[in-house]
Specification:
Layout: H1 3-20, H2 26-30, E1 33-35, E2 47-54, E3 59-65, E4 70-75, E5 87-100, E6 124-128, E7 133-136, E8 142-157, E9 166-167
Antiparallel strand pairs: 1-2, 2-3, 3-8, 4-8, 4-9, 5-6, 5-7, 5-8
Cofactor: Mn(2+)
Organism: Cohnella laeviribosi
EC number: 5.3.1.15
Length: 182
């Protein structure tokens, strides 16, 4: 991802948080993580994150999704003696379509990113609007997509070890690489 794309996404996220009435410090805004997952199409498959805290006991983040932007299917595996990350998503603004293992929906409301259909395999649908939340157990495949306006989701979880996430799509690179062009 180019540095200009990262800056534009970060500025867009700042505006989303402002609209949602969620205050972030200038330092937090500078540290917004913009992940395109190495797929080169941030608007379609990507995620923006602000990590408040991540210790060996717990983690708190804000996840920002642009309209119809999808975080690719993945799971959080056991690491060492830890069973894997358990996370609760609480929608703060907009709408998020969350898909987990379980009985598939007859018709899903999200759109699987074109060309990536083979890498989206779970379709039990949970729709979250502001104030609603859902807890994802460790080791559960899941993916999620912002609604028509996008979404802001607070994540409360056990320790986050993103570098160990297992994505269904083998092309995904979890840790972002930014090429600054200035």
């Amino acid at each position: 991802m180019r540095g200009t794309e990262w800056r534009e996404a970060r500025d867009r996220v700042a505006e989303m948080f402002r609209k949602a009435g969620i205050a972030l410090t200038p330092s937090e805004l500078e540290k917004v993580e913009v992940a395109d997952f190495g797929l080169g199409n941030l608007a379609v498959q990507g995620l923006q994150l602000v990590t408040y805290i991540n210790t060996d006991r717990y983690c708190a983040k804000e996840l920002a999704l642009f309209p119809h932007q999808t975080c690719p299917e993945h799971l959080h595996p056991p690491v060492g003696g830890d069973p894997g990350k358990m996370e609760t998503f609480r929608c703060r603004w907009g709408k998020v379509f969350l898909y987990v293992e379980g009985e598939p929906a007859a018709s899903v409301q999200a759109a699987v990113p074109p060309g990536s259909e083979a890498y989206y395999t779970v379709f039990h649908e949970i729709v979250l609007t502001p104030g609603e939340q859902y807890t994802i157990p460790p080791g559960t495949k899941h993916w999620f997509q912002g609604g028509p306006e996008g979404a802001i989701v607070s994540e409360f979880s056990s320790t986050s070890r993103d570098e160990f996430d297992i994505f269904t799509d083998p092309k995904v690179e979890r840790m972002p690489v930014i090429e600054f062009d200035d």
